[in-house]
Amino acid sequence: MRAEEKPGFRRLPLFREMMTQTFDSLMQIAYSQNFPPRMDLIQQGEYADFLHILVEGAVELRATWNGHESVMGIVRPVSTFILAACVCDAPYLMSARTLERSRIVMIPAADLRAALRRDPDFAVAAMRELGVGYRTFVRHAKNLKLRNSRERLAAYILQQSQLANGVVSMVLPMEKRHLASYLGMTPENLSRTVKALRADGVRFQGTQVIITDPARLMALAATDSLIDGPDPENIAS
Amino acid sequence: MRAEEKPGFRRLPLFREMMTQTFDSLMQIAYSQNFPPRMDLIQQGEYADFLHILVEGAVELRATWNGHESVMGIVRPVSTFILAACVCDAPYLMSARTLERSRIVMIPAADLRAALRRDPDFAVAAMRELGVGYRTFVRHAKNLKLRNSRERLAAYILQQSQLANGVVSMVLPMEKRHLASYLGMTPENLSRTVKALRADGVRFQGTQVIITDPARLMALAATDSLIDGPDPENIAS
DNA sequence: CACACTAATTGATTTTTATCAATTATAAGA
DNA sequence: TCTTATAATTGATAAAAATCAATTAGTGTG
């Protein structure tokens, strides 16, 4: 754990309000590590030894069953992952691997649980983090069940645009086959859907996406904050 | 809040380890209420005023978008629902309504948050509850993305059988069209899938389900604890 | 019991999505 | 730069699932 990183962590929502003593003792134990791209971090079914906090880079959450595989989510800094497995002391439901070179801080699950029991403010912050994760998956399930694949792709593009302050042009943050899997479709189907969306206000040029008619695209996606987010930031505590 | 109910609550995982003082003050504030079947409790998009704890009966979580609707989950006693919205102070992502006559205890969200901040053991128990909810939705999403509708139905039947200690005969706990929606299919599709499953070891007789060939059904469903549960019970704290 | 109402089923059809096979594009390494 | 490997696209087809329409079954009520 590099000393110069500590002040940055202290400012994260998860650590901001905890007691200095708890924070210092966790920082003593935690260690941060760099991982290369495409590095497996966690296998589904294993037990949680460490809470992972992604500080830099990107991590993909994947699930497999019976020879099938699916991208379940993308984690971006700064967020924890596998917090639920740590708290429940239960096996991971998903595997995790880096997409890019990533910096990850790891806290032993036992120490995490001890700190939670010792420091109510930390516990509340961790709950909020977990609550956000819960809501992310409710949204994912709603998206899958209520929208068809064209609508999901349209909503995804608008969501990405929103995250980048409403730009009309951007590059896809991952390979198309991964995006397809995340959106619950095959690469072939994504490819065709992309072409079909030209009539609805989007053009693709390689990995570049250009929204040519935002209004039209929004009409198709019927963007809804209860599916696409974001949650309102919690100003009050 | 009826006095004779208190000891029962005290034994619930959520309340078992909290301080007596916190428990008593919450019980002072909380009130329990009976609701008739098909009663709307919560509308998606509203803000969380009360944590709901289902003590008796059954509650359905539903989501709507753009004229479409889907059953996202069934809550059975004793569990909380909408804990995440309370903790995050964010709007509900799903609506809730009773399926049967239900007894529900309600705790004002502000008091809940105060109690969490005051009592670390309570916060840890609440986190665990939230963690279970998170994992439920990860499982739901995995089920939708990795299995087709026949496999989902087969897995559902086996799961219900398991919950009832491995019986080979049971009654569906909800209407078929609700089950269809929960499993992400149309009622017509469910009806046909039911018929198709006869070749795989299940018979339906009205609302009665009979597993005629468990091995065969399990081969089809490829039951997996990382999708179908259950989580191992957390004996240790 | 008859009535009305809703749920469930069935058949015919369309739409959506997946699969398979082949080709083209893109990127990384020698 | 050429080579090789992988990703993306395209076309043809099949499978899965949704939709629409009609009928049958089931439920609760007066």
UniProtKB/TrEMBL annotation, chains A, B:
Cellular component annotations (GO), alphabetically ordered: cytosol
InterPro entries: cNMP-bd_dom, cNMP-bd_dom_sf, Env_Response_Regulators, HTH_CRP, RmlC-like_jellyroll, WH-like_DNA-bd_sf, WH_DNA-bd_sf
CDD domains: CAP_ED
Superkingdom per UniProt: Bacteria
Gene3D superfamilies according to UniProt: Jelly Rolls, Winged helix-like DNA-binding domain superfamily/Winged helix DNA-binding domain
Residue ranges constituting the Cyclic nucleotide-binding domain according to the UniProt record: 14-116
GO molecular function: DNA binding; DNA-binding transcription factor activity
Keywords: DNA-binding, Transcription, Transcription regulation
PROSITE patterns attached to this UniProt entry: CNMP_BINDING_3, HTH_CRP_2
HTH crp-type domain ranges (all copies): 147-215
Protein name: Transcriptional regulator
Origin species: Mesorhizobium denitrificans
